[in-house]
């Protein structure tokens, strides 16, 4: 019995996608979806670059989940999956200049402009609670 690599990856990755989509975060899987949602986003938008790496599971996704329990949150919530939805991720990263591509990472935008960015190196050595604290401070500053 053999399973295709693509199917295997989809099955393995789906729980990682679900961790964010179950929070009400809209997954963008094509460059066209990114362009339609991010380029035209009014108000505030959170964009999570999801990843299979351990720091995504141990700190990033749990930190985002904790932050979204805060009283003040962005108007819109999006995610793309690095290494899986490559073209969508590349399109999303166009909005994060001058930051180099990193995954996982978290962007906060206001009216289409990047206002706060958490790179991988600021995720991998911090706890989920520390990431949530940084996000909630940014939410309070930008999303009110």
TrEMBL record:
InterPro entries: BrxB/BrxA. It comes from the Bacteria. Belongs to the bacilliredoxin family. This is BrxA/BrxB family bacilliredoxin. The lineage of its organism: Bacteria, Bacillati, Bacillota, Bacilli, Bacillales.
């Amino acid at each position: 019995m053999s399973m295709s690599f693509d199917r295997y990856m989809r099955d393995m990755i789906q729980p990682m996608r679900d961790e964010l989509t179950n929070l009400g975060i809209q997954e963008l899987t094509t460059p066209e979806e990114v362009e339609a949602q991010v380029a035209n986003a009014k108000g505030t938008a959170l964009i999570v670059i999801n990843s299979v790496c351990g720091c995504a599971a141990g700190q990033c996704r749990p930190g985002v989940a904790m932050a979204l329990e805060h009283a003040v949150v962005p108007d819109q919530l999006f995610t793309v999956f690095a290494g899986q939805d490559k073209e969508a991720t590349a399109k999303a990263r166009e909005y994060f200049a001058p930051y180099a591509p990193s995954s996982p990472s978290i962007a906060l935008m206001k009216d289409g402009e990047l206002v706060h960015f958490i790179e991988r190196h600021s995720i991998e050595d911090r706890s989920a609670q520390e990431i949530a604290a940084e996000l909630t401070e940014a939410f309070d500053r930008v999303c009110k």
